[in-house]
Amino acid sequence: MKSMRWHPAGYGGSRRDPDQVKRDGWHDEGVLAVSVDDHRLTWPERELVRQLGEKLYGPRASDREAANG
Fold this sequence. Notes:
By secondary structure, the chain is mainly α. Helix content is about 50%, strand content about 0%.
């Protein structure tokens, strides 16, 4: 006898942690998700991430508010 499911296929079970999702995205799709505040990066690396983000997407809301004082 087949047991009844109480959730759709693909739902339930365990969730991947955010770092695993980022790692898989990099390996599988070439997509890099990096926090500008990641403690594993040195200051020059964080600054590079910030500059890339601003170039591609514009300044962050918190940076705009700080500039407008």
